[in-house]
Specification:
Length: 219
């Protein structure tokens, strides 16, 4: 399968970096310390800004203070934060003006996880600090497209969560979902599904990027 675009927008956690264990450890601890059932908290947290999870499950608490506490816990937890297959290679192949990272993490957390995984900081990064509405709103991806100077329909998004895929599709972008966090059946609204970035090749023409998926996963 081949998808063509002019620019690529990457989610961070679950696409470029494996931080699932750290995310779940932090949210489990946060929930238990506040007498909450951790499982729905963890499920909601994947792919969303921390402050939105706090507001949903603990609306009586100071969202700003709780969000800062979660951020500090996540930055401190670097165990098992590693690059996902193919991420380093794909980032090296892409010109800086052809891609951005669009993450639900704060800028400080995103930069920490990239560092822990040994991946370079990109020239273009949209974080939770840069938007009013996080995923599944299309605002983060639309901001990423605007930052690069491309129309939304010319951008291809790599995601790993239903919220992220919905954000991309709502913004008028094509999306490839990776089954690193959710099953293929939960990501079926994406244009294509794959196991990792390592299963893809990039080809460049004068203006376009061709993404060749060598092992697409059935929806």
């Amino acid at each position: 399968m081949i998808l063509t675009c002019k620019a690529i927008l990457f989610d961070l956690d679950g696409v470029l970096v494996d931080s699932t264990a750290a995310v779940e450890r932090v949210w489990r601890l946060w929930a238990l310390e506040r007498n909450l059932d951790p499982e729905p908290v963890i499920e909601h947290a994947h792919g969303r800004r921390s402050i939105e999870t706090v507001r949903r499950f603990a609306p009586e608490l100071d969202a700003g203070q709780e969000n800062l506490a979660v951020e500090n816990m996540e930055i401190a937890d670097r165990e098992g934060v590693i690059p996902l297959p193919g991420s380093s290679e794909m980032l090296r192949k892409l010109p800086q003006d052809k891609f951005a990272i669009v993450t639900s993490a704060t800028r400080a957390l995103a930069e920490a996880r990239l560092s822990y995984a040994g991946l370079p900081l990109p020239q273009h990064l949209v974080s939770a600090d840069d938007v009013i509405h996080g995923k599944p709103s299309p605002e983060p991806y639309l901001k990423g497209a605007s930052m690069l100077g491309f129309a939304a329909q010319d951008c291809l998004v790599f995601e790993d969560t239903p919220a992220g895929v919905l954000a991309a599709r709502s913004g008028g972008m094509k999306a490839i979902a990776l089954i690193t966090t959710y099953s293929a059946s939960e990501l079926k609204s994406a244009d294509a599904i794959a196991g990792s970035l390592a299963e893809m090749k990039l080809e460049f023409s004068r203006q376009d990027i061709r993404v060749i998926i060598e092992c697409a996963v059935p929806k």
